[in-house]
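User: I'm putting together a teaching handout on how multi-component assemblies are represented. Below are the sequence lines for each component of a complex, exactly as they appear in our records. Could you produce the 3D structure of the whole assembly as structure tokens, so the students can see both representations side by side? Please keep the chain order the same as the input.
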Amino acid sequence: MNTRNRAAADGFVLALTGGIGGAKLCLGLQRVLPAGGLRIIVNTGDDFEHLGLAISPDVDTTLYTLAGLANVELGWGRQDETWSFMRVLETLGGPTWFRLGDGDLALHVERTRRLAAGETLTEIVADIARRFGISSRIMPMSDDPVRTIVAVAGGGELGFQEYFVRDRCAPAVAQLRYAGADSARISSAAAQSLQDPALRAIVIAPSNPYLSIDPLLAVPGMRTALRARAAPVIAVTPLIGESAVKGPTAKIMRELGVPPSPLSILQHYNGLVDGFVLDERDAALAKEAGIPVRVCDTLMRSLGDRERVARCTLELAQAIGSPPLAQKLRES
Amino acid sequence: MNTRNRAAADGFVLALTGGIGGAKLCLGLQRVLPAGGLRIIVNTGDDFEHLGLAISPDVDTTLYTLAGLANVELGWGRQDETWSFMRVLETLGGPTWFRLGDGDLALHVERTRRLAAGETLTEIVADIARRFGISSRIMPMSDDPVRTIVAVAGGGELGFQEYFVRDRCAPAVAQLRYAGADSARISSAAAQSLQDPALRAIVIAPSNPYLSIDPLLAVPGMRTALRARAAPVIAVTPLIGESAVKGPTAKIMRELGVPPSPLSILQHYNGLVDGFVLDERDAALAKEAGIPVRVCDTLMRSLGDRERVARCTLELAQAIGSPPLAQKLRES
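Assistant: Of course. Below is the structure of the complete assembly, with chains in the same order as your input.
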């Protein structure tokens, strides 16, 4: 067994993530940690059924990103994609507002087939991750349906994908709820990882708190498990100044009456996190955080950027006090 | 109203068809008849559910062929097709023996979605034909499931597509049955067309009698309606000498102990047909047919070939005695 593998056997880091920003950090973590040293619990609140297919956008973004298959230009779907399906679907008068690439479609069709045959989403995702050659363990937050529902200003509710994709986040958000969360069970893989003594640190990825992380925290047992763990929890800011790198985080905060600021994010995760990674442009806010902070350039454009933010996050966890992790980082 | 439309209003020809050979003749008929002068009842005995999708191979071959979208090289699917879906499905470990092109897939996904929403196959096919700009009326034989089952020599049964596509017709056929046919209802569109006084002639396309036409004839009411009609029924041979132009017709005949010959086909349709179109290479058999025969080159490679066989078929119907048809052909 080489040094890397010995280190991996020593423990693992657990990331909580949603869409593309979170997936980028997960890729960085996967690259700087020893093989097998990363596990990921992924939001399934934006899952939905479309065209009769079971679609799991955040799970797929995580799979594609960690496999090196993600379409970096689009920010979703697969690279080197073809679009014959959508072209023909349009001529047939089918619904075309949710774009599905031809290769991407295989994942949805195969997942739907396997779910209908009785496999759990957890089992399917684990198998696909293996086939994609991904060394990290990717776990849906739950095998039960949880659906993020957007109550819009002026009344009415939208399914998440209607809000996010069809309406391009234009409607003002009045409230968010996570239908099904109350009765959903945390997936056994996720529950086991949260209780595993080899857990060295938990990272809340720079995903949208309302759309990506809150659905995950709404699953009964998740908050309790996070509060009960010995390992430090580090959140990485999704905001730089008053802006999100991508997506509607700042817009939603304003609509909900929350000032868009990294400190508001910290406030949002109040009581759950032990450390916070701030962007260097917001370094002045560090003294107001009230918990240990590490500052770095959190923009992730290149692979090197992803690794830098991952290292910064792990160093903070190490500094807060996770001796086995510190040891692992030295060895790796 | 121009001459063509007036002629179409005068009556129509009804074709019974299955796969690619039948679709070629239907295209020929569509081209030589006035617009709206052709209706087609299509076999659905080779329909099946695959990857959770409702697939209707003969209906789709008919749609693609009459719309000018068929993949002539493959003999199935769409022209100018891409194959990203199958490539990725293979990496996911999904079943790949039944090839589905990316554009073709849109038809299956959309049909499955609309069936689940409560539409009938008849309604869906009519709408797609309209969207494809097809002037002929294409009607599934039934909206109820009928499934051709192949009992193989040595025991055991195969679903039709397992036999036909996966096993490439290699197993010896011991018997064929059409599961569900007993309780299937003829589609109302097909039943209405068979009883319509404007029906001028019925054409049994040069499809495989066992795999394409018999399932259709097994639907209760179909044989009775064919026997009751006033219009002549013309069968077009699927054999030239002892060989089928394409597909396993001759092989199956041998396996079932039937000498592969156009006269055996005629025997198979005994009591149902009034006229028979023979290939010119089999002209010597005409005197043994016992019913009116017309001889022509039945090989359909070019569009002109399809039109030639269509004209030959319609001329035979006219000669047998379908005065409105004769009038229509003169006017068109």
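A couple of points students might notice: Chain B has one domain: 3-331. The first strand of chain B starts at residue 12 and ends at 17.
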